Amino acid sequence: QVQLVESGGGLVQAGGSLRLSCAASGHTFSSYAMGWFRQGPGPERDFVAAISRSGSLTHFVDSVKGRFTIARDNAKGTVYLQMKSLKPEDTAIYYCAAEPEPNPYRTVTVRNEYTYWGQGTQVTVSS
C-alpha cells in the first residue's frame, strides 16, 4: 500500500505557473505508474497527465499539451506536475494517483484503473 500527499497548489493569475508535487510513502515508489487528475465544479474527476514507472513515457489530455509536464523522481518517491501558461479553466482540485504496474513502460490514463489517491490540492487561476 502507498500513501500519497499532494502539495504546491495555490492561487495564481492567468498565464502564471505552478508546480505540484506528490510524495509517496509506504511502498516501493518505482513499482507504480502515476497520474494526475483534476476535479472542477462538476462531479467528474478528469485525467490530466500520466507517467510510466520508468519515467520514459508520458501522456497528457489534449487541453494541457504544451503547457504541462509530468516528471518523477523514483529516488525521492515523488511525482511532479509542472503547469505553465495557466488558464482560468485549469481551476480545480488536483489529485495524484498511483497504480501498481508490472510494465515499466505503460502509462495509466483511466481513472478507474487507479487504486491509490491523494487528498488533493486546490489550484485556482484568476483571470
Secondary-structure blueprint:
Blueprint: E1 3-7, E2 10-13, E3 18-25, E4 32-39, E5 46-51, E6 58-60, E7 68-73, E8 78-83, E9 92-100, E10 116-117, E11 121-126
Parallel strand pairs: 2-11
Antiparallel strand pairs: 1-3, 3-8, 4-5, 4-9, 5-6, 7-8, 9-10, 9-11
Overview of the molecule:
There is one protein chain. By secondary structure, the protein is an all-beta fold. The chain contains no helices and eleven strands. The chain has strands at 3-7, 10-13, 18-25, 32-39, 46-51, 58-60, 68-73, 78-83, 92-100, 116-117, 121-126. The strands form two sheets. Strands 2, 4, 5, 6, 9, 10 and 11 form a seven-stranded mixed sheet that branches. Strand 4 and strand 5 (46-51) form a beta hairpin. The chain is globular, with a radius of gyration of 13 Å. The termini are far apart. The model has no long low-confidence stretch (mean pLDDT 96).
